[in-house]
Amino acid sequence: MSGEAFGLTDHAVPATGDEPVDPVVNPQSVYSAASNGQLNGSYNYWARIYVRQDGTDAANNRTRFYFEARLEMSGGGAYNNDQDQYYAVYVNGGLHANGHFRLDYNSRHNTSRVLRTGTFWMSHDSNGYRGGFPTELWIDTGHPSVGDGWSGQAWVDADRIAKVPGKPPRPTFRSVGTTEVQYNFQGPSDNGGSAIQTYNHQSATNTAFTANVKNWDDPGSPAIASDLIPGTGHHFRFRARNAIGAGPWSDTLSQVTMPAVAPGFTVVPKPTGSEAVLTFTPPGGVSGVTKYRWERRVKGQTAVATGDTTTTPRTITNLGPGTVYEWRASAFVDAYQSPWTGWITATQPNPNTEPGVYFDGSTADKTDVDYRWSGTAGKSTSEAVGKRPDGWTASFSNGAGGAYSRVTDSGLTGDYAVRVQITADETAAGGVTAGIDPNFPAAVIENGTYYGTIHVKVSRAQRLAAYLRFYNSSGGAIGNPVMGESEVVEPGRWARLMASGVAPAGAVTAIVRVMDVAGDGWVAWKGGDAFRLDGAAINLGEPYPYFDGDTPDTGEWDFQWDGTPHASVSSASALEVASYDPLADPDCPRPPAPPRPPTIDDICIIDVGTWSRYWAVIPETYVTEWLTMVPTIALHIGDAPARQVRIRIYPNPLDQAPDVFIGDWISEQIVSYLPANSSLLIDGVDQRVWAEVGLGPRLRADHLLYGSNGEPATWPVLSCGLGYLASFDVPADAPPVEVEIALTQRRS
Predict the structure, then answer these.
(1) Can you tell me whether residue 59 is helix, strand or coil?
(2) The pLDDT value given to residue 576
(3) Rounded CA gap, 690 and 694, in Å?
(4) Are residues 449 and 322 both part of a single domain?
(5) In this predicted structure, what is the pLDDT of residue 199?
(6) CA distance 340 to 350
(7) Please, are residues 84 and 142 in contact by the beta-carbon 8 Å criterion?
(8) Residue 377 has what pLDDT?
């Protein structure tokens, strides 16, 4: 026996009169097959089976097939008209239909005889597939002319019944913003037998996808989820949809949106004045910050310098000592950039206190400045750094930054004082404290009532309070600080602040400090603010008037330094007072003690570390030997102000050029402030100062002129037929200054 099988599409099968009509659903393609097998009789008889796909029942996941069983003959021959012959149709190995037929004389010449037609259903798998299967016809006649045999197997397939798409893979993160997340996705490996029409996407703030749910369609990657909640964890999933419906959801992608806030940011200038340390913290505590960006500008200017950093803290170099900068920062998470912080004001310390005086690392230290090499001695740059005052300290928190140093000729009693410079803006009260260092405390005894006093002088009004803190023998603080009554301290005067309390059990030492306190009159410290401290004391029993080791002794008290003069604790010892003075002159009372020399301290006079110098040459031909000459100086400045302009007069008997001149000045005048677009006339004849600002009227400006260290201004005269030089030191960030000098003769 032999057989054949074949598949047909768009092939019209000749009608036999027994073919089914109106299938459930027309198939997408028509699959059919046929097979012929010769019987083993003596004449040419064949068994033929024909099968084709006939309709689809998608709802029940099955396909209907039509079959046709035939006996094929080639012409006359033996016949049997009184005996039934047997046939059977098998589908996929199982009996589907059988029956009997008779061969009579009249049908022996038929070329084909239909034995059986019909339909049957075949189920598909869960994915809609139906693999090929065999159908065959068996004929059993027992007649020697016809014989027995089978058709062979006719294998036929079926169209896939379309299903919903399969489960797609988990999406992958792409980028995040405050209200938007983007992610990449790809379709499932199985489209369900029907083309993907779109993709459904869903986001929610919980894994059950019941809170803050958003639904949208994105037909292609990437998907963009928008209108999300800033700083909140979100979950994302998607599924594919075809003509049948939507498939299962993908696994979930989770991502926290960026908070709509700026990063944490602090600026702390270094004492050298040329560097500042920037510290960043992630916005809202999120992770994954890829870099920070900072911007800087000189206060009052618009030009901005910028930079990126992946590390924190970050040290910025090449800054200008004494310059007031404004800073701000932003954070990046991949392509997302957070909002900027507000501008933070920070003043660079100004360690160079003597413009025009050369120094290097070998220069002898001064009372308020230390000089050092930055590297190898004699072969590196040098630094001038303000000295730290012995026994004093300051601390900065709540965003504040700053430095403290010792300054001269500005103390409560004319010696030294502590200058606390604020360099970064404070965000809340209590951020700046300063006073006695715990390493240099005062001794106390348990249960004693102590009064801590400290003197402060501020650059602007601030609410301040003093506080006491007690320590045990191990140096550990005992309890909370004992706060004194706060008050608003006005600028321009020394104010005495006080706190009192009982030393607790275990207390052996105590310190006193000052701090800013919330309340009416409190304003956050800003970069550029400053205050000075002096005269800290801790007294037992009552608050005594200020004294130190230099305070003149009296008949009742002996004052002395406990260690190094001006650099140690002072004490006052009570003296026994005799009922009478054996040395008293009955006719002439003891003269009073002479007064101390007066001291002047003006907080408007500050140090300038980076400056430009202009020179004016006064030839000796303009200065006669027998007459004195009085200089009148005019200064003109452009569209920005200048501060601390120093004017110095130098005798120049050798007529040296300014760039090689070596000599000391004999007169110094300081202009504390030169307004923008102004002219200032320093009239040496009338010893008056006049100013014109813009096109305004002529104004008295005597209050802008000082002498050295803030003392009253002095007026130079030129004489003896010598040549002179005049230098004008102007801060480097000020515009150029035009200078004019006129000389007036005055008889000696």
Answers:
(1) helix
(2) 58
(3) 13
(4) no
(5) 95
(6) 29
(7) no
(8) 86
How far apart are the C-alpha atoms of 377 and 360, rounded to whole Å?
9
User: 519: Cβ–Cβ under 8 A, 6 or more apart, which residues?
Assistant: 463, 486
pLDDT tier, 606 (very low <50, low <70, confident <90, very high otherwise): low
Q: Return d(Cα 349, Cα 382) in angstroms, integer.
A: 16
Contact 152, 136 (CB under 8 A): yes
**Size of the chain, expressed as the number of residues it contains:** 748
Structure tokens at 529: 């603010």
Digit-coded pLDDT (tens) for 199-217: 999 999 999 999 999 999 9
Same domain, 89 and 148: yes
Domain that holds residue 633: 611-747
Tell whether 133 and 185 lie within a shared domain.
Answer: no
| Residue type at 643 in one-letter notation | R
Radius of gyration of the chain, Cα coordinates, nearest whole angstrom: 52
Domain count, the chain: 5
**Residue 230 corresponds to which amino acid?**
P
pLDDT at 225: 93
401-443 pLDDT per residue, tens: 888 888 876 777 766 889 898 888 898 999 999 999 998 888 8
Task: Calculate the CA dihedral of residues 576, 579, 585, 589 and round it to 10 degrees.
Answer: 80
Distances (CA, A) of 214 to 165, 174, 197, 200, 483: 22, 19, 20, 11, 56
Residues 111 and 231 in one domain: no
CA proximity to 511, closest of 433, 580, 583: 433
Q: What is d(CA 160, CA 341) in angstroms, rounded to the nearest whole number?
A: 61
Residue 584: its pLDDT value, please? 55
Burial annotation 690-703 (CB, 10 A radius, 16+ → b, else e) = bbbbeeeeeeebee
Residue 230: φ, ψ to 5° = -60, 145
d(CA 229, CA 153): 66
pLDDT higher than threshold 90 for residue 343: yes
CATH number reported for the structural domain that contains residue 301 in this entry: 2.60.40.10
**Is the same domain home to 661 and 743?**
yes
216 plus 269 within the same structural domain: no
Residue for token digits 């047997």?
86
* 3-state SS class at 58: helix
Task: Return the bridge partners of 393, or none.
Answer: 435
Element (H, E) at 191: none
* First-residue to last-residue Cα distance in the chain: 151
